[in-house]
Amino acid sequence: MLAALSVRSYTKAMQQHSHNFYQLVLPLNGHIAIQVAQFNGNVGVGEGICIGPNMLHQFNAEQAARFVVADLTEVPHNIETAPSPLFRITPPLQSLLNYIEVQLTHSYSDDLQSSMVALFTQLLATQPTGKQLDRRITPILSRVHQNIAAKHTVNDLAKAACMGVTQFKGKFTDATGMGLRRYLIKLRMEKARALLSQTDTPIIEVAAQVGYDDVSAFTRRFTHYFGKPPKYYHRKSV
Fold this sequence. Notes:
The chain is α+β, with helices and mostly antiparallel strands. It has helices at residues 77-80, 91-106, 110-124, 138-146, 154-160, 165-176, 180-198, 203-209, 215-226, 230-235; strands spanning 4-8, 15-17, 22-29, 31-36, 39-44, 47-51, 57-61, 66-72, 86-88. It has 2 domains: 4-124, Jelly Rolls; 147-235, Homeodomain-like (Arc Repressor Mutant, subunit A, Orthogonal Bundle). The protein is globular, with a radius of gyration of 18 Å.
């Protein structure tokens, strides 16, 4: 088989199967409940799980949840020898997953697939396999990614995580490498750039999709973040 990346959703009905290749499931939003080897639990945004060849596994998910799925003939040494099939995703790999989602949703070619698999594999080799996310933060990340345009606040998310504000800030920063405000800006700007450069979506609609009712405010933020205005990237897709 050829290594391949795809964007998938699953159903709430429990499924069970195995396959003769490695399969990695990495949430874009929502989570998947999965039982494989010694792991039995939820895998959410900021995490990935590696299912080895011929390993029987059971899984289900909300249909609205979306995942990048990598089918590989081999995986990097750090993933293959990890003590748990569950691993933590670094911000660079999470950014690539968001890019892959836009690319595979709107376009496809063998060359594109090959280049994305190569970059995905390189980043996979850098993922930490020891320390895992705080289980209270995983559903919070899934909630944020489920609707990046929403007005997420520290107070609301801390309450949802059953934490005090100070504790939540520390745990969130530990999980993502940055505070909530910076994380939201990064997530929204990267999604906007991907939509602008890879689709024909008008700038005003891109702004709305990433939480900006005022296109002028979006343009200022985007230009400050990337050093170039949205129309610079929009031209690249036409």
